[in-house]
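chain below, 271 aa
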Amino acid sequence: MLLGAMSQLFRGPPADVAGAFVRHRLSCVQLTPGFPSLRFHQPGDFTPDRCRQAADPFRQAGIAVACLTGPAGLLDSDLDRRHRGVLRWHALIRHCRDFGTHRVVTETGNRGPDSRSADHWAEFRSILAEGLRVASDHDVLLLLKPGPGHVLGSVDDALRLRIELDHPNLGFVLDPAGFLAQTPPEEWPEAVDRLVAQIGPWCPVVHAKDLRVENGTVGLPRVGQGVLDYGQVLRLLRPYQSNPAVILEHLRPGELAEAKRCLEEAVLQAT
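prediction:
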């Protein structure tokens, strides 16, 4: 297992962020293109040289670039902003391997009460199909991340998408908390089993945060502050993914050591 975090957990240029990863003994990073002196706002900002400037300090420090962070919302309600975001996404896919990885993580986004409509599903499929065409041309894997209320928000959505598109460049982030946030808490233990069994074959990256109920509301704190058993998750995932990248989420730098310890204990339980 590769254990890491999001690059934006720490501030500074790539070399400084990579140094922080080394100090915390992390082995991989989910790299968000964009640093104080190295921005990637426009499609033209993605050049082989600039991409390598962002990624090389991590690789030289022995930190694997597990994946890149893509758009947080493919279905932006502002059509002009959506168009710009999709163009940037395509540029990110085309240059993904210049960053030293072949995976891009993308979210569909939440359009509000009508996010789950048939029209939005059709729009999403159309946008994704074009992204997959670009990904296929450049041998890149698109990993979709779920979110409560998002167009892709449940295991059923993921399975439906696999049936409707059935594309070799399509995968998912195994995000137990994200997938189960709208599942009744009493069903969480059995739902984890089903989640991994149903989509584990397409999930080379895990996003690790926790689930808990406070005052009747489901929260998504950092690992170790809820009820998810990551020993169980990783044990179930092993037949499908022999060396997954596990990315810690929903934490601050000062909480990283404790979250890392919780995951490492989970790994011991999974062996």
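Residues 57 and 222 are 27 Å apart (CA to CA). Strands lie at 2-6, 28-31, 64-69, 103-107, 141-145, 170-174, 205-208, 212-214, 217-219, 245-248.
thats it, cya
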